[in-house]
Amino acid sequence: MERARTVVISGASTGIGAACALHLDRLGFTVFAGVRREADGELLKAEASPRLQPVLLDVTDTASIDRARQLIASLLREAGLAGLVNNAGIAVAGPLEAVPIPDLRRQFEVNVIGQVAVIQAFLPLLRKGRGRIVNMGSIAGRAAMPLMGPYSASKFALEALTDALRLEVQQWGIQVSIVEPGAIATPIWEKSGAKADELEATTSGELKDLYAGVVAGVRARVAEAAARAIPAEAVAQVVEHALTADHPKTRYLVGRDAKLRAIMVKLLPDRLSDRLMTRILNLPH
């Protein structure tokens, strides 16, 4: 029996999600592209074939998830899903001492709890189609950096959820993979930078002074990484492999920087890694 060729992608308005939606559409998949605004869906449709269908989907809103599930199920009728790409995510940046707790909760609400909520909603359709799940992680989910603690923590959590899920759903032939990109050219750089600027503007003078050296060092390296960022299409091609290969990998590292960082984490003791990162980032110590 031929596998279904229908996929759901969350966070498809821009960046990696949009690149995945358009790439899979070009390959002949029927793509349900999750967006939070109708205008974003119209922009995506303008670049795609008539098969691509934007769907309003806010991963932090239970009612929104349920409406999307019902709509997609009604259109699939007796067919199942070939894949679910959990891409929606945000990045909260700043020293942990200064990050507002509501922002920290929002980080986990979108990047962790929202992912589980979407998985729960679509697993029955994935079971029916013997589909696959691709979670969008990050090299930050293996290696944390200063000022990126909230984001890294959410991606570390997604690694654990992926490992558990992979074992839980293997009984139905459902494959689960996580993609771990490094620096990718997407709007998340600007969004997280803007959020960091906002946090810095509202941080007390004392805290700002205490972390000035860390902020300066990390900002310089982030700017360099953004300049070297590779196109989101590179991630889309990896997602294609995870959805279509006979033997998909459980983890996909994307980008030279991600691969180098993964090697560092695997081979270097924590203290040595800390010293190296302190030097690279020019951190106060």
- Contiguous low-pLDDT stretches (5 residues minimum) are none
N- to C-terminal separation?
61 Å
Using the coordinates above, name the CATH class.
Answer: Alpha Beta
CATH superfamily: NAD(P)-binding Rossmann-like Domain
The main β sheet shows up as: 7 strands, parallel
Q: How many structural domains are formed by the residues? A: 1
Structural class: alpha/beta
Shape: globular
What does this 3D model show about the protein?
- It is a single chain.
- With 285 residues, the chain is α/β, with parallel strands linked by helices.
- It has a single domain, classed as NAD(P)-binding Rossmann-like Domain (Rossmann fold, 3-Layer(aba) Sandwich).
- The chain is built from eleven helices and nine strands.
- The strands form two sheets. It has a seven-stranded parallel beta sheet with strand order 3-2-1-4-5-6-9, with helices on both faces.
- The longest helix is centred in the middle third of the chain and has 29 residues, at 101-129.
- The radius of gyration is 19 Å and the shape is globular.
- The model has no long low-confidence stretch (mean pLDDT 93).
Overview in brief:
With 285 residues, the chain is of the alpha/beta class.
List the helices and strands and how they pair.
Layout: E1 6-9, H1 15-26, E2 30-35, H2 38-45, E3 53-56, H3 62-76, E4 83-86, H4 101-129, E5 132-136, H5 149-169, E6 175-181, E7 184-185, H6 188-202, H7 205-210, H8 212-228, E8 230-231, H9 233-244, E9 251-254, H10 256-267, H11 270-281
Parallel strand pairs: 1-2, 1-4, 2-3, 4-5, 5-6, 6-9, 7-8
